[in-house]
Amino acid sequence: MGTLETIAAERLAPWLSLFRKKNPDVGLKIKIGNSNELLAQLQHGSIDVAFTFDRGQQDERFLTRRICSEPLVLIAGGDSQARPPASLAALSTVTFVATETGCVYRHLFDTAFAEAQIAAPSIVTEADSIATIIRLVASGTGYGLVPRLAVGPAAARGDVVELPWPGKPPAASLVMMWRRRRVQPPALTLLLQSASQELSPLRPADARLRHAG
Q1: In Å, what is the CA distance from 45 to each residue of 49, 54, 176, 183?
Q2: Distance CA 95, CA 65 (A)
Q3: Domain named LysR substrate-binding: which ranges (predicted)?
């Protein structure tokens, strides 16, 4: 299986421990990569399933199942004395740290501002991972818009603070993807069933899973 580093650390680790206890005969290998690497590995068969954030694009090579919705949060450095933006328009005038174009996290960032119908803000620094973005934000480089699941440890230490989003809070769909095959391997079937049932408690807004197959 393949996944993004943030998802592996904050969402998959507890579930995989439970899965191993229930299925001790199933061997697991986890590969960490960016979103493009995961899709390539999935296509080539080096992984059987990928856990990532939805780009909103249909890919007929794969089946996709939505697991849950993950909030995106606006963060600033803990020592920056940053004030919550007064409006969505004000957000477009401040500087941000984001991942580079082509990364799924950059897609989530760009989509959040597009859906808010405001101009995208200036990207002062492009980083290679969410962890790096959080460290740069903590140092005062700029604001960040990242999945809340990645912010917990830094927020607990006071390195960053979460600021209210001046509008409808953006969110991202956590999904799992696997190749279309006439017959799925039994171990993969077990993994998919377990993830659907146990990976994350579903809130009402997340209850309508998009089942494939």
Answers
A1: 9, 20, 15, 14
A2: 35
A3: 2-198
Model pTM? Answer: 0.83
61 is written with which tokens? 């090579």
CA-atom Rg of the chain in angstroms: 18
> In this predicted structure, what is the pLDDT of residue 200?
58
Query: pLDDT over 70 for what percent of the chain?
Result: 93
Superfamily, domain 70-163: Periplasmic binding protein-like II (3.40.190.10)
In 3D space, the residue among 68, 70, 59 whose CA is nearest the CA of residue 178 turns out to be: 59
The answer to whether 2-68+172-206 and 70-163 have equal CATH topology is yes
Distance separating alpha carbons of residues 104 and 108, to the nearest angstrom: 6
Residue whose C-alpha is closest to residue 112's, from 171, 182, 177? 171
- Do residues 51 and 191 lie in contact, with contact meaning Cβ atoms separated by under 8 Å? no
DSSP per-residue string spanning 37-54:
HHHHHHHHTS-SEEEEE-
Site of tokens 């920056």: 80
Give, for 7, the enclosing helix (H) or strand (E). helix 5-7
